[in-house]
């Protein structure tokens, strides 16, 4: 399959180029030129497939012959080397747990897949590829772990000083080796702006092979489609509604792509914190990026969500079209804390602040259904609650534990302080 820019549908590139460039030359994001529906047999057989077979079937049409089948199979296998269970809370509400990977957030899936694809394509290169990434917390740790020790690849991570949890910071700044972390005096949006600028700045891409591992990279989105199919396989009812706690809208975009592939999903809920740029668009038809507001669901504190351009591409820029599939809603920190308590009290289930927003969006959406007999609402639980214990423990007034097999990153913090300006970043990149 070929990939085109959201700004220019004429120039198509290969998967390898879309992966390596990160961002298209014209500043747009890469999108699949055309998403064909999967064969009906694939969907019919889905129930008896393993996770890896599911993943291969989805990845194959996007990657074609660019990666040999046996290599792709290995990549998918290593990407999905942990469980993704769908857990019922009530008759109509289930939670898809995406946090069983090494950094306990869904971003492990995208990062692991991308690292392995990139490593395949760069294996014969004589110079290293630098992966540049901005993070509001979870991307950085997932990318750091996904790429750690991968040959031929250097990783440079920008994160906003004081705006990620101590735990997230530890997970990315203590690794060293091929992982460099930069603690930026600014917000996540500043970090993201600098990453985008680095691709255009004179003297950088001329000197080093640069790519990005943000959710703007199409190689992150492809594996994120997998888990909608994995949830579908575990469904207990006919009609599925997915509520996706969203920030940069990578997860939601992957869901919309899964639907284009033919997965029968009735509705998506774009569940947001008070950075309600996309819900506002769905209400008013106006897309107005703003400075991000800090919340307790900090991985979703995004004021200018990149993947909005892809969402528009998938629906030909039509509010009317996208509104048939997606509804938006937003919630504040007090709502989030309340519902964490309530769900724990009702179902004995501990949500993290991001999943909690997903739950709230789901409940709100299901309220509009007259008859829910055949409807199963699924919210994505995007991180393990112990990752956000500073928020969750005071709400529950109880300690929560890490998963059994979890090992905390130890060692000194190795990050370098970075001013909110391009000169210093450029120096570090080309040094
Ligand atoms: C990144 C992240 C999100 C938001 O996902 P997007 O794909 O950027 O919308 C939600 N929850 C957690 C825990 C995250 O790390």
Oligomeric state of shown chains: single chain
Helix segment count?
A: 17
Give the structural class: alpha/beta
- The count of DSSP E runs of length 2 or more, i.e. the number of strands, is 14
Q: Percent helix among the residues?
A: 40-55%
Instruction: Tell me the Rg in angstroms.
Output: 20 Å
Tell me, rounded to a whole number, the average pLDDT: 93
CATH topology type of the domain at 83-103 and 220-396: Rossmann fold
Rounded to the nearest angstrom, the distance between the terminal CA atoms is: 36 Å
CATH architecture identity of the domain at 83-103 and 220-396: 3-Layer(aba) Sandwich
Q: Largest sheet, order of strands side by side?
A: 4-5-13-10-11-12
Catalogue the ligands.
Answer: pyridoxal-5'-phosphate
Task: Give a quick rundown of the structure.
By secondary structure, the protein is of the alpha/beta class. It contains 17 helices and 14 strands. Residues 105, 107, 138, 215, 245-251, 299-300, 354, 382-383 line the site of pyridoxal-5'-phosphate (PLP).
Overview of this structure, please?
This protein is α/β, with parallel strands linked by helices and 431 residues long. It has a domain at 83-103 and 220-396: Rossmann fold (3-Layer(aba) Sandwich), CATH 3.40.50.1100. It has 17 helices and 14 strands. The chain has helices at residues 15-21, 40-45, 51-63, 69-79, 107-122, 138-147, 166-173, 188-198, 218-233, 250-260, 277-284, 308-314, 319-325, 333-347, 353-366, 389-396, 422-430; strands at 3-5, 8-13, 30-32, 86-88, 93-97, 129-134, 153-160, 179-184, 209-212, 239-245, 267-272, 326-330, 375-381, 416-418. The strands form three sheets. Strands 4-5-13-10-11-12 form a six-stranded mixed β-sheet, sandwiched between helices. The chain has a five-stranded parallel β-sheet with strand order 9-6-7-8-14, sandwiched between helices. Strands 2-1-3 form a three-stranded antiparallel β-sheet. β7 (153-160), α7 (166-173) and β8 form a beta-alpha-beta unit. The longest helix is centred in the N-terminal third of the chain and has 16 residues, at 107-122. The model has no long low-confidence stretch (mean pLDDT 93). Pyridoxal-5'-phosphate binds next to α10.
